[in-house]
Amino acid sequence: MEKIEHINYIKVPVAKVYEALTTQEGLAAVWTTDLVVKPEIGFVNEFGFGDEDYTKMKIVELSQNKRIEWECIESDPEWVGTGISFELSEKNGVTSVVLKHFNWRELTEFYQFCNYNWAIFLFSLKIYCEDGAGTPYQRRKF
């Protein structure tokens, strides 16, 4: 099994980062504006990326200001059955975010592309939390 793992540091309190990762407003500013999100265990968040390409993530864990975990139940076949987690911790007003995308069956070209895009996601999260405007999918030019 393969796993993608990234860390980034965001100069805001952990509660702000947690809110960005669990609310419709936050995830619309960071990942995609086409979404249905509810911060509730068992809820299936839906994320749209054009051409009726929807990714559905079931919320498996919500530990306030500490950890979020999703299970992919519908998307590209390489994503289905994988999990995404965000582990958060704060020290001196700086929040570290460890993003893991785990249970990939193999390392493929799509895996490599997603690895790149998760880094972009974390950068978008950082600029949204620190500066008030992220770069969701619909506004990306790279």
What's the arrangement of secondary structure elements?
Layout: E1 2-10, H1 14-22, H2 24-30, E2 34-36, E3 44-48, E4 54-63, E5 67-74, E6 83-91, E7 94-104, H3 109-131
Antiparallel strand pairs: 1-7, 2-3, 3-4, 4-5, 5-6, 6-7
Domain Activator of Hsp90 ATPase homologue 1/2-like C-terminal: 11-128
InterPro entries: ASHA1/2-like_C, START-like_dom_sf
Family: Belongs to the AHA1 family.
Descriptive account of the structure:
With 142 residues, the chain is of the alpha+beta class. Helix content is 27%, strand content 39%. Strands 1-7-6-5-4-3-2 form a seven-stranded antiparallel sheet, covered by helices on one side. A hairpin with a 7-residue loop joins β2 and β3. It starts with a strand and ends in an 11-residue tail after the last helix. The model has no long low-confidence stretch (mean pLDDT 95). Belongs to the AHA1 family. InterPro entries: ASHA1/2-like_C (IPR013538), START-like_dom_sf (IPR023393). Residues 11-128 form the Activator of Hsp90 ATPase homologue 1/2-like C-terminal domain.
Question: CATH superfamily, please?
Answer: START domain
How many angstroms separate the termini?
Answer: 29 Å
CATH topology: Alpha-D-Glucose-1,6-Bisphosphate, Chain A, domain 4
Main beta sheet:
7 strands, antiparallel
Largest sheet: spatial strand order: 1-7-6-5-4-3-2
**What overall form do the CA principal axes indicate?**
globular
